[in-house]
Design a protein that fits this description.
single chain
Length: 227
């Protein structure tokens, strides 16, 4: 059963169970899917409005890109499960002879590299999606700005979650050159993506957060009724 076909409640039950998959990598990909879906909602509410007519051609291009990314995030959620299985099997390979040890080490390196590449792909998709979210924050419906902010938060979660799955796999590698290569690329994606996400989020927050004079509009917090 793929992530695309699984009911949300069933997926969450499985995610919380004592099973290796789905795990953090797959969940990170789904966070990305949530993020771009919110971007698509912003596109839907902006499209067709006279006020945003000049943005309409670009809006449709963004819609196409986000739709493809949503599909890709779902594919990567499933891919994360698929690459874990051979890795789990490799850990159990025999290593009694020199030949067996060499084979196990080679197999593990291959599987660890593959298991690291899937979350890196998730990070690449999240970084790409953030470019489109920036455009929506700048030019999309102002009534939908909060949804841009939430979408960006999900994409940031996808980034930070995915990099954990890069590090946990590269840490086990004996090929230090490959480990360094993957870690440095993942860190660059993380650093660039987090910075972009923070800037968009702060832009949105500044635009929608009510402003008031703290002294003039004092609130006695213990007297506020939140019921």
């Amino acid at each position: 059963m793929t992530a695309k076909e699984t009911k949300l409640n069933d997926y969450l039950e499985k995610l919380g169970a004592k099973e290796s998959v789905p795990g953090g990598g797959g969940a990170s990909a789904l966070a990305g899917a949530y993020g771009v879906s919110l971007g698509l909602m912003v596109v839907s509410f902006t499209s067709g409005k006279k006020k945003y007519a000049d943005f309409e051609p670009r809006l449709q291009a963004i819609k196409e890109k986000l739709e493809k990314l949503r599909v890709r995030f779902l594919e990567l959620s499933d891919e994360d499960e698929k690459v874990f299985y051979p890795l789990s099997q490799a850990y159990g390979l025999p290593e009694e002879t020199v030949e067996e040890k060499d084979y196990k080490e080679t197999t593990l390196e291959t599987c660890l590299s593959a298991a690291s590449m899937t979350p890196i792909k998730i990070m690449e998709c999240a970084c790409e999606a953030l470019n489109y979210m920036q455009e929506l924050a700048d030019n999309g419906s102002k009534l939908m700005l909060s949804d841009v902010g939430v979408g960006v938060s999900f994409l940031n979660t996808a980034l930070q979650g995915a990099v954990m799955n890069v590090y946990i796999n590269t840490k086990m590698m004996k090929n230090r050159n490959r480990m360094i290569e993957l870690n440095e690329y993942a860190y660059k994606l993380l650093s660039d993506g987090k910075s972009r996400a923070r800037l968009i989020y702060e832009q949105v927050e500044t635009a929608i957060k009510p402003s008031y004079d703290a002294e003039k509009d004092k609130i006695t917090r213990n007297k506020v009724d939140f019921s």
